[in-house]
Design brief:
The complex is a heterodimer of chains A (about 350) and B (about 290).
Chain A (H helix, E strand, L loop, with lengths): L1 H8 L11 H17 L6 H27 L6 H17 L5 H23 L4 H20 L4 H4 L5 E2 L13 H24 L2 H11 L1 H6 L4 H27 L1 E2 L6 H14 L6 H19 L4 H15 L3 H20 L10
Antiparallel strand pairs in A: 1-2
Helix pairs in contact in A: 3-8, 3-11, 3-12, 3-13, 4-5, 4-6, 4-11, 5-11, 9-11, 12-13, 13-14
Chain B lengths: L1 H31 L6 H17 L4 H24 L7 H23 L23 H23 L1 H11 L1 H6 L4 H27 L7 H14 L4 H21 L8 H15 L14
The chains are: A mainly alpha (about 350), B mainly alpha (about 290).
């Protein structure tokens, strides 16, 4: 199915990247201010919810690097999320490491696992890769529950962690502190993702996505880059998992089933495949829409969620990225009709 | 040795379920070029319809045929209503719609018929086929029906005009349209057939695993696995793959010490991934070459 994968990659430029840089900077600044002010105006539980949304956004960002920029499917990212969470929980619980140290370590572990999983995955394409990763997602809870690992993982019971307080005597509640920590980490990882995508490596990744044969002809080491992307993607998702372990204060095998993998995938598509800021929209969607559906109808929550999902896809077949691009396009045309564009931007 | 034979036969019995499902999966893959994640739920819903008909006093075979007809119409309608408007959406969006269908159907079934487990009758009876009691009459009947379906499908796709048109529409929609095939309707027809085959699979599986909204979850996974091991382009391969998955699952559970029973799903899946890395398009699949 390679031509179709290439076709999905076309949404890579789907982001509203055509907006003038000033407007974009303004949007980022407003968003950032809102994000910074948010925890002081809402209840602790809402802060917790937004923290989780940010965590999902990080995981979706990892998935986006893999699918959106390298054209590899994954329905198995719940496994990396779980590995990250368990790495953090075990290190805190058994080794007594401070929680902040576990984030990079969980990322590292997931990078190695993802890289190793990426090696056999090289041989698989499209639907076959989707199935192999799906198998990983399904197997993960069983592996976590299995008896040889029980001394570390706590089996079905899972591991309970104590929620850390704000350090340095900052006047913040534990929830607020974790929110800011998550925000900082997600910002850092987003900047890294932007830099990665805009680098020589990023161009190699996209070349592999768009036309692997031509990419190889230009001297790109496809095997290396594909496995590396798998590793980096798993790293992002693993860090998200570790953060979730600390924020939720609990890990258990059944938190990391394929349902999570599917949710991340849905978030990726809703946000926009191949558009980095879309991950945030995806994260918010994954967290809040199922709750919304439950409020509409308890008994039919699943059906309501499904209908919302179908409507979202109807309205924006290529995710929020496509919709925003469309709006930006319309706006630009409207503005362009009002006055002659001196910079000649439209004639580009 | 006796254990081995016993386990292989038991594996074949469960493999029959997977083979049935794998066949339905491959059918729709041939018609629409996607794996349908909602396939299992569609089959489950059809089975519930059959159950409801029987509750209303319809005899088994009438209910069976009626359900197949309703499912066919339902599958057709689903394609026309939900997927036709999305024909030009990216592939990943299609998968999200499959997922949405999955949760909608699952939730609806739970809402209408609740989540309690229901018994479903078997047309073949459940007494053991031989004295040893390894295979029940129902298991044998299920295998028989699967093979019969396979033969019918083979004849349909190879020797009828409409079968040829469907294959053409799936393989190359643009060229098919140019030679006068109504591609949209062929795809819808494929959906209808897949829903009908799923209904048959569901009604055969339900006597074994019992009827409830989540009955298809793991079966669908094994069905996918069987289809992929056999090769998504080959219905016969899918059936063989389904049986193979059943046998492997059972043998791994019995013969691998300590972790075997706990991890039998994982082991089966790992084996599948191993098969795929050696033969990326499945054991019986055609390697699809693309022009650069």
């Amino acid at each position: 199915m390679p031509p179709k994968i290439a076709a999905l990659g076309k949404t890579a430029e789907a982001g509203p990247g055509t907006a003038p840089p000033g407007a974009r900077r303004l949007a980022v600044a407003v968003l950032l201010l809102a994000a910074l002010a948010l925890p002081f105006f809402v209840k602790n539980f809402v802060v917790f919810q937004f923290t989780m949304a940010l965590i999902y956004a990080i995981a979706i960002l990892g998935l986006n690097l893999l699918t959106g920029f390298n054209g590899q499917f994954s329905l198995g990212h719940s496994a990396f999320f779980g590995i990250g969470a368990y790495t953090a929980a075990i290190l805190i619980d058994q080794a007594g490491l401070p929680y902040w140290l576990t984030f990079p370590l969980a990322g590292l572990v997931c990078f190695v696992v993802g890289f190793l999983f990426g090696l056999p995955a090289l041989r698989l394409e499209g639907i076959y890769l989707a199935l192999a990763t799906f198998a990983l997602a399904v197997a993960m809870p069983q592996i976590l529950k299995s008896s040889p690992l029980e001394p570390w993982t706590g089996g079905v019971q899972g591991i309970v962690i104590v929620k850390p307080d704000a350090p340095f005597g900052l006047p913040l509640t534990a929830d607020q502190w974790l929110y800011f920590l998550t925000l900082a980490i997600s910002l850092g990882l987003t900047v890294c993702a932007f830099n990665l995508v805009n680098s020589r490596t990023g161009r190699a990744l996209m070349a592999i996505r768009d036309n692997p044969i031509a990419a190889r002809a230009m001297g790109i080491d496809i095997a290396l880059y594909k496995s590396l992307t798998f590793g980096v993607s798993a790293l992002y998702t693993g860090v998200a998992g570790a953060l979730s372990a600390v924020v939720v204060q609990f890990v258990a095998p059944d938190s990391f089933t394929f349902v999570l993998a599917v949710a991340l995938f849905v978030g990726l598509v809703v946000g926009g495949v191949g558009w980095i800021p879309g991950s945030l929209i995806g994260g918010l969607f994954v967290l809040f829409v199922p709750n919304l559906a439950e409020q509409v109808s308890k008994g039919l929550a699943g059906a309501v969620y499904g209908v919302i999902l179908i409507l979202v896809i109807y309205i924006m077949p290529s995710g929020a990225a496509g919709l925003l691009r469309l709006i930006a396009e319309r706006l630009r045309r409207m503005v362009g009709q009002g006055r002659d564009d001196p910079a000649g931007r439209r004639t580009r | 040795m006796e254990i081995l034979i016993h386990q292989i036969l038991a594996g074949l019995a469960t493999g029959g379920i997977y083979a049935c499902m794998a066949l339905a999966v491959v059918m729709i893959y041939q018609a629409i070029d996607h794996l349908n994640f909602a396939q299992g739920e569609m089959a489950m819903f059809s089975t519930f319809i059959a159950w409801q008909l029987m509750q209303w006093g319809v005899p088994y075979w009438s209910a069976f045929l009626l359900t197949v007809a309703i499912s066919f119409a339902g599958g057709l309608a689903l394609e026309r209503i939900v997927f036709a408007p999305l024909r030009h959406a990216p592939v990943l969006s299609h998968i999200v719609v499959f997922i949405a269908l999955f949760v909608i159907i699952n939730s609806l079934a739970g809402f209408i018929w609740d989540f309690s487990i229901k018994a479903f009758p078997s047309p073949f009876g459940t007494r053991p086929l031989f004295e040893l009691g390894l295979l029940s009459a129902h298991d044998a009947g299920m295998m028989g029906v699967t093979v019969l379906l396979l033969v019918l499908l083979y004849l349909f796709f190879r020797h009828t005009r409409i079968g040829l048109a469907m294959r053409a529409a799936a393989a190359n929609p643009e060229s098919a349209r140019l030679v006068g095939i109504r591609v949209g309707w062929m795809v819808a027809l494929g959906w209808g057939m897949a829903a009908a085959i799923g209904a048959v699979a569901g009604m055969l599986i339900a006597p074994v695993v019992f009827l409830e909204p989540n009955m298809m979850l793991s079966i669908l996974l094994y069905g996918f696995a069987g289809a992929v091991v056999g090769g998504l382009t080959s219905p016969g391969g899918a059936v063989v793959g389904g049986f193979a998955v059943g046998v492997i699952e059972n043998l791994a559970g019995t013969f691998i010490p300590h972790v075997g029973r706990e991890l039998k799903l994982s082991i089966a899946l790992a084996l599948i991934v191993a098969v795929l890395t050696i033969k990326p398009s499945g054991l019986f699949g055609r390697r699809i070459t693309t022009r650069v």
